[in-house]
Amino acid sequence: xxxxxxxxxxxxxxxxxxxxxxxxxxxAWSTGLAVxxxxxLGIWLFTSSTGGIKARxxxxxxxxxxxxxxxxxxxxILIIALIPFTRFMVGTALxxxxxxxxxxxxxxxxxxxxxxNSLREVAEGKVEAALMMGASNGQVIRQVYVPEALPGxxxxxxxxxxxxxxxxxxxxxxxxxxxxxxAISYGYQRYQSDTMLACIIVLVLIVAVIQxxxxxxxxxxxxx
Amino acid sequence: xIELRGLRKVFGDTVALEEIDLSVPAGEIHGxxxxxxxxxxxxxxxxxxxxxxxxxxxxxxxxxxxxxAGAEMRHARRSIxxxxxxxxxxxxxxxxxxxxxxxQIAGVGKAERQSKARELLEFVGLGDRVDNYPSQLSGGQRQxxxxxxxxxxxxxxxLCDEPTSALDAVTTDQIxxxxxxxxxxxxxxxxxxxxxxxxVREICDxxxxxxxxxxxxxxxxxxxxSEPGSxxxxxxxxxxxxxxxxxxxxxxxxSLAGSDLPRVLGSAQSVxxxxxxxxxxxxxxxxxxxxxxxxxxxxxxxxxxxxxxxLEADGIYAEVALK
Lengths: 224, 323
What we know:
- The complex is a heterodimer of chains A (224) and B (323).
- Chain A is mainly alpha-helical.
- Chain A has helices spanning 10-13, 16-48, 57-72, 75-81, 83-90, 95-120, 124-132, 137-171, 178-188, 193-221.
- Chain A has a single domain (9-221), classed as MetI-like (MetI-like fold, Orthogonal Bundle), CATH 1.10.3720.
- In chain A, helix 2 packs parallel to helix 6, helix 5 packs across helix 6 and helix 8 (137-171) runs antiparallel to helix 10 (193-221).
- Chain A is elongated, with a radius of gyration of 21 Å.
- Chain B is of the alpha/beta class.
- Chain B has helices spanning 40-47, 70-77, 95-105, 110-123, 139-151, 169-186, 197-203, 221-226, 231-236, 261-270, 301-313; strands at residues 2-11, 14-24, 29-33, 55-60, 63-64, 80-83, 157-161, 189-194, 206-211, 214-220, 250-255, 278-286, 289-298, 318-320.
- Chain B is built from 11 helices and 14 strands.
- Chain B has a 6-stranded mixed beta sheet with strand order 6-7-8-3-9-10, sandwiched between helices. Chain B has a 4-stranded antiparallel beta sheet with strand order 2-1-4-5, covered by helices on one side. A 4-stranded antiparallel beta sheet of chain B has the order 12-13-11-14.
- Chain B is elongated and about 75 Å long.
- The relative contact order of chain B is 0.12.
- Chain B folds into 2 domains: 2-226, P-loop containing nucleotide triphosphate hydrolases (Rossmann fold), CATH 3.40.50; 231-320, ACT domain (Alpha-Beta Plaits), CATH 3.30.70.
- At the A-B interface, helix 7 and helix 8 of A face helix 2 and helix 3 of B.
């Protein structure tokens, strides 16, 4: 109980900053990769669904099932289940780089579903107008669906990033690094409530900043 | 320019279009009118290849869209300009970007398509609005952008699907004036689908009346509306509904088609029905012809028969209006 507290506590003064940077790196990498890979998957889901511009019901059902299965696995179990794959990808199952693999795998179907829903919001008349101008399916996707749904796609990426912040904390429980690991190993296992509280405050700030930036960006591209 | 032969479209058990024959020569403005569900939308979807006809042919500029697919279909569509009721502009693009879009699809370079789009926006009177987004434009301005966009690929045929239904009367007149000037200046063929009689009255040279998926009437506007008892004429020049509380009096409705007001009045006068007995009337001059209807109220059924006989002897169509 006589441990030094707050700004005398080395867990806070020395480990807080690197842990924050790790959390930010994990969130940035996994959000970036999830958007990069989830966007095409979401477009594929949307175009192959009934009423899509290239409806293929069987393909849609298969894709949909894979997405739903991945999404329904609790994240902490997904990390463990993915350990062999993670070793194959980054050579280790520990540290923030390893966590990015699991975070990305978990976030891709999540973002893809949000993409599918955003694209569904685009008015059919706009698509028909482009088809009437002689647009190909690829042109309709690139020139109508994606730009028209852009505010929604950015909003979806923001939601994904915020979710990933809390997932990084969860990954801390299984050697993932970042603020989650700090909060668990010091705040929980060593009863340092000041470290726990400090981690929570920083996580809340990160989420608030991500949300603010996401909203600003979505607003900037929204001409409706 | 536009040739439909035996067009038939069936959705499941429902026949949407049946035996549609239609021919619109180059440079003509042709109206397609009919109530909701008459098949107007299906017709335009068949014309543009968005729906495939069950049988029959649809030729635009001599190219039959109904037997094309893929890249050929996309290419053929570029020769048709389309104007929509809800305009369907992209919110993510400025007026300029929207007008340039068909050219972008066709693979025209950026500088060229932008200068073309600028020119077209000037043509429709929006030269100072090129950088505005659709949300910054009024309904009428948006439809002008829509028309400029439809013209971008220099189509020979302009299809307009209820282009003014979402606009107020003054804006409607402006848009119709614009469409007429396009025909006069560019010689473009226009097919305009509408349920608004004012549109037909203002700009159509010829007209087709669709009812239950069939052509009920087709021809030059002046001919179609001057047929005695023409239902189109009744819709074009509407009269208020006949009141119920007229007692024993009989109401005789006289069509002005193929006649004119002084002759009708003279005829009525000869059997003792004066202008004082006129209950309601609506007369309009369409393409130099007076069309419209006049309702006389007469005291008895005998008198109404006398009046109708006298009018018909003068070649004027009249009937007893139902109460």
